[in-house]
Amino acid sequence: MFELALAEEAPRPVGAIMEAAGEDAWRTIPAENLLLIETPEGRITIYLSEALAQDHVAQARTLAKEGFYEGLSFYRVIDGFVAQGGDHAETRELGSAKSPLKAEFEEAMPRNMLVTKFPYSDGFAPVVGYSDGLPVGIDGKTKTAWHLHCTGAFAYARNNEKDTASTEFYITLQPQRYLDRNLTVLGRVIDGMSVAQAAPRGVVDGDPETDDFSERLRIDAMHIAADLPEDERPSWQHMRTNGELFAELTAARAARPSEFFYFRPDYIDICSMTVPVRPAP
C-alpha cells in the first residue's frame, strides 16, 4: 500500500500544483470502464471500478450494451440525497443481465489491487484511500475493501434483502457515507455531475394510473465508451495518486495556503479530496 506523506514544508497553491502536472502525472481510464448516460440535458460520464464490484460492473455493461435503459428516466430524485434511475415499474425484459445480483457491499481485497492510503483519519472506515483514482475504504482486520459514497458515487439500489440489486441505480448528490457497506458502489461520476444535480426533484410512486414522467430527466441511451466508433469515443484521464504531486495537492487542500484563509484546518476528509480528472489530450 502506497502512503501519502504529510508535507513537511508549506505546499504550493492548488493552481500552481495543477499547472505543474506533466503527462506522467495522469493515467488514461480504460474505455471499457467509461459508462455514458445520455440525456436531453447532456451526458453523464461514469468511471466504473476496475478492482471492486465486478459483478455489478458486468451487469452495468450488459444493460448498457443491450439498450435496457433507453427511454427510462431518473424517477426518484431527492434533494441533497440521490438521483435514482431505471425501470421502477419492472416491466422491461432483462435480456442477458442477471437478476438478482449477489451483494458486493465489501469484498476481499483482490491481490492485484493497489491502494494509495489517505493520510487523514476517517469516521466511517479504519483506513481510506484510492484505488485507480476511486475512493475506497479498507478494514485491515477483515482484509476487505469497498468504494465510498462520496458525491457522485454510482451505485445499485436494492430492496431490504441484501441480494436484491438488479437494474436500478443511483447517483449520490452529496456524500452519504452511512450507506457505505450497505449498498454496492461500482463507480463515480467524473463529468456531467451538474446534469444529475439539476434533475427535477420528486418521486414517481409506481402507480401506472398516476405516474407522470413528463418532468423527469429522461435517459435517451446508455453506452460503454469502448462500444462506440473510435471517432466518437471519449477518453478521460485521472491523476495518479501514488506520486509526489498528488501528495502535495492533498496537503494543499488541507492546509489552504491561499491568502484568503485566516484559519487553516490542516485537515481534509476523503470525499472533499476528489482525484482530478481531465479529457485525454
From TrEMBL:
Keyword Isomerase recorded: yes
InterPro entries: Cyclophilin-like_dom_sf (IPR029000), Cyclophilin-type_PPIase_dom (IPR002130), Cyclophilin_A-like (IPR044666)
Transit peptide keyword on record: no
Domain PPIase cyclophilin-type: 38-224
Gene3D superfamilies linked to this entry: Cyclophilin-like
Swiss-Prot/TrEMBL keywords: Isomerase, Rotamase
GO molecular function ontology, one term from the record: peptidyl-prolyl cis-trans isomerase activity
EC number: 5.2.1.8
Pfam family, any one: Pro_isomerase
PANTHER family: PEPTIDYL-PROLYL CIS-TRANS ISOMERASE-RELATED, PEPTIDYLPROLYL ISOMERASE DOMAIN AND WD REPEAT-CONTAINING PROTEIN 1
Protein name: peptidylprolyl isomerase
Species this chain originates from: Parvularcula mediterranea
